[in-house]
Each structure stands twice: as C-alpha cells, then as structure tokens.
Amino acid sequence: MTRVHVAAEGESVESIAYQYGHFWETVWNAPENASLRALRKEPNILVPGDAVTVPALREKSVAVATTRVHTFRRRGVPSVLRVQLLAANRPRAGLAFTVTAGAMTRTGTTDAAGWVVCYLMPDVTRGELRLDATGERFTFQVGTVGPPETRRGQQTRLRNLGYGREGMAFEDCMRAFQRSQRLPETGEADEATIAALQAAHGS
Fold this sequence. Notes:
This protein is of the alpha+beta class. 25% of the residues lie in helices and 23% in strands. The chain has a 4-stranded antiparallel beta sheet, with no helix packed on it.
C-alpha cells in the first residue's frame, strides 16, 4: 500500500526508497511527491519532517518449471560517494585510497582532479576514507547536507569546503568564502553566494 514516510535526520529519498524496496527514481518521480520536488530540487537533500510518499510495490510474477532450481537477483541500487581531495587548492591526484563503511570495503585511486569516487549502498550513513600512502584518515557522514537555502545547509557546505575553524562565526566563514569567489564580503547568504556555494560544493 501507499504510505507517507516522514524524513528523519540523515535520510534521503535514496535511503527511504531502499528501505521500502524501491529504486529512488520511483519514489522521487511519484506524482504525490510533486510538491516535494518543487521544494527540495534534489532527491538527496531533505529536511527532517519532510513528508515523502512511498508508492505501493508492484508485484511481478514469472512462470518457471517446478522441477528445477531458479535463482532470482534484485538489481543493484548503489549510491555514489564523491569526495575531492585538495592541497593548497591543487588536486591530490593518483592517491590510492580505501573506503570502509560497516562491513563493506572499497579501494581505488583518486583521479586527475583529486576525486574519490566509489559505490556504497543507500543505507550507509557513515564511514571512513583512508589514504594508503600517508595513513591519513577522514570520517564522513552521508545525508547531512541540508538545502542550500538553509543555515544548516550553508554551514555544512562551508565546512566541507574548508572554510572556518572551530568556534569561528558563521558570518566570518561566509566572508572568507565570498572573498575566494570575488563576491561582496557581506557575510550574508544572498542569491549569488548560494549559487557559488552550490557550484563549489557540487550540490
């Protein structure tokens, strides 16, 4: 049956759809979620309390011989983790890395632009990125970036981009970002600043 799921902290359309056995596109594109799409623009950025309509599962039947053994596989629904590594604003290319999330481990090498790209399951909420050569370790959380129009979303993006330190005022972090983008240093999240923040962050 169709149900309404109220989003909790850290949830996304992807994780909610996976929980109920759907592909995320099925949930996101459901007609009942038209107002949610207009409000949030991106399926992986929800605010706690957002109501997400989850359609009923569609049954599928397959005729098979009863005297044989049959294997049925569910198509994979992986999510993509993308993290860019920089040093003095220069890409850290060609670095071997290991990503661990629960019992899952993925390995790879950063590309020419310093990007770590690997596949995770949609229900992963946190994990660790390790650089094999240097031993550096970075913990990450999935689903914690709020909409760019909100203070929480702006703070998270600024922090992910390396602007500000512990105890630094939000306005000072924003001014540092605006300075780097050659925008008026108002400390306020105006339309131009939000657009630049989204572009720099990648979402």
